[in-house]
Amino acid sequence: MGKVPAYMVVHDLIKLKIKDGTYPVSEFLPTEPELEKIYKVSRTTIRTAMEILKDEGLVEIRQGRGTIVLDSRAIQSLNKVTSVTECLRNRGFDVRTKSMYIDIIYATERLGKELNQPIGTPIARIQRIQLINEKPIAIIKDYLPYALVPNIEQFTNKFNGLYEFLEQQYHLEIESADDKIFAKSADFAESEMLAVLPGTALLCIQRICYKGAQPILSDDVCILGDQYELSISSRGRNK
C-alpha cells in the first residue's frame, strides 16, 4: 500500500473532530494559518483537505470569513410517514439509486405475517443501494404483495423514491407505519456495499407501511449511523 497523502491525513483528523464535536456545528474551524500550525502541513495541504470536506457536505467555505462546520446528518422525523430518500432530498442532498434489483419471491412465514398474506403468495422484492452526492449511505430492501404492483420489475432503475413511485404509478398511498429501530455493526457484505470498514455503526429501520388497516409494504433499511438520525416527539405520559 502506498503512503496516505498528507491532505487525506489532515482531512481524516479534521473529520473526526467534526464528528466528535471538537469542532461544533455552526462554528468556524480554526483559520488556515492556525490549521497549518496544528497539523504541521502547508497551506496547499490544508486547502485541499478543506475542498474534500466541502464536497462531502461537512463544511462550507465562506470567502473572507473562514470555514464553517455544517450539520451533515439527515434527520428523519417519525411523527409523519416519510422515506429515507425523501428525508435526504429535503436536506438538499443529491440522491441516486445504485444497483437496483427487482425480483419476485414467495411469502415466507415472516413476510406472510408482516404483509397479512398466505405463505407462498408472490411478493415483489426491491433491493438497492442509496447514494447521497455519489457516496453510498443506505442498503434498502422492500417487499410488497405482487398483486398490488403488477409488472413492477419493468421499472428497475426507473425511480429513486419508492413511496412517491407507488403513489404515482400504482396509486398506493401510505397512510401509517410501524417502525422497529435498532443499531448494529456492518458485516463484511454490508461494509463492501457501503464502502466502509466492517464493524462500522449502522442504524437499522424495519418498517411496516399501511393503507388503512392493510399492510402493503415491508421496508428493511440499514443506513450509516454517523450520517442519519431520527427525531420523535411524544405527548403525555404512559404510566
TrEMBL record:
Residues 4-72 form the HTH gntR-type domain. Signal peptide: none annotated. Gene3D superfamilies: Chorismate lyase-like (3.40.1410.10), Winged helix-like DNA-binding domain superfamily/Winged helix DNA-binding domain (1.10.10.10). PROSITE patterns: HTH_GNTR. It comes from the Bacteria. Keywords: DNA-binding, Transcription, Transcription regulation. InterPro entries: Bact_HTH_transcr_reg, Chorismate_lyase_/UTRA_dom_sf, Tscrpt_reg_HTH_GntR, UTRA, WH-like_DNA-bd_sf, WH_DNA-bd_sf. This is GntR family transcriptional regulator.
